[in-house]
Amino acid sequence: MTDFVVDSSVVAKWLIEEPGSERAWELISPAVFLRAPDVIVPELTNVFWKKATRRELTAQEATERLDALLRDHIDVSVHLLPARLLSNRALQIALATGRSTYDCLYLAAAVQSRCKLVTADERFVRSIKDSTLQRHIISLADYQ
C-alpha cells in the first residue's frame, strides 16, 4: 500500500470538475492510503462558499459538494490527522520556507507520516528548496 497526504487543492478536484480532476481521482484506490490534516474540511467549505459567491456554483450545489465531501470522502477516501499534533512542525516549516502555516500543515503531515504530499499547487512545490522537504512533496501533475 502507498501512503500520501493530499491537500485541499487535490480533494477539491474530486468534487468540482476542473483541470486535473481525472488525475486526482486516480489517487482514490484500495492500494493507496490518503490522509490530510483536519483543517481540510473548513478549507474546502470555504472553497465551496467562494465558488458560490462568484456564481460558479449555486448555493445548493455548494451545499451538495460539502455533503458529498463529508459523506463520501472524510474518513472514507481520506483520513484526518489532528492539526494540533502537526502545528509545531508546520510553524517550523513555515518560518523556514515563507509559506503559510496552512500549506505547511500538509507538508508537516507528510514529513511526520514519512510519505509525500500530493498537491495541485505548483507554486508551493516550486517554493520548497530544502532537499529534506522536497522529498516529501510532489505535484499532482507528476503523480503516477
Protein described:
With 144 residues, the protein is an alpha/beta fold. It has one domain (2-142): Rossmann fold, CATH 3.40.50.1010. It is 53% helix and 15% strand. The chain has eight helices and five strands; from the N terminus they run E-H-H-E-H-H-E-H-H-E-H-H-E. A five-stranded parallel sheet has the order 3-2-1-4-5. Helix 3 (40-53) packs antiparallel against helix 4 and helix 5 crosses helix 6 (101-113). The longest helix is centred in the middle third of the chain and has 15 residues, at 59-73. The model has no long low-confidence stretch (mean pLDDT 96).
Note the topology.
Layout: E1 2-6, H1 8-15, H2 21-25, E2 32-37, H3 40-53, H4 59-73, E3 78-81, H5 87-97, H6 101-113, E4 116-119, H7 122-127, H8 131-134, E5 137-139
Parallel strand pairs: 1-2, 1-4, 2-3, 4-5
Order of helices and strands: EHHEHHEHHEHHE
Task: Give the quaternary arrangement of the chains.
Answer: single chain
Number of domains: 1
Corresponding CATH superfamily: 5'-nuclease
- The first-level CATH class is given as Alpha Beta
Global geometry: globular
Output the CATH topology.
Answer: Rossmann fold
- Overall strand count: 5
Q: What is the CA-atom radius of gyration, in angstroms?
A: 15 Å
Low-confidence stretches: none
Number of helices: 8
How does the helix and strand content classify structurally? alpha/beta
Q: Give the strand order, joined by hyphens, for the main sheet.
A: 3-2-1-4-5
How large is the share of residues in beta strands? 15-25%
Q: What percentage of residues falls in helices of 4 or more residues? A: 40-55%
What is the level-2 CATH architecture name? 3-Layer(aba) Sandwich
Distance between the termini: 14 Å
Query: What about the largest sheet?
Result: 5 strands, parallel
Mean pLDDT: 96
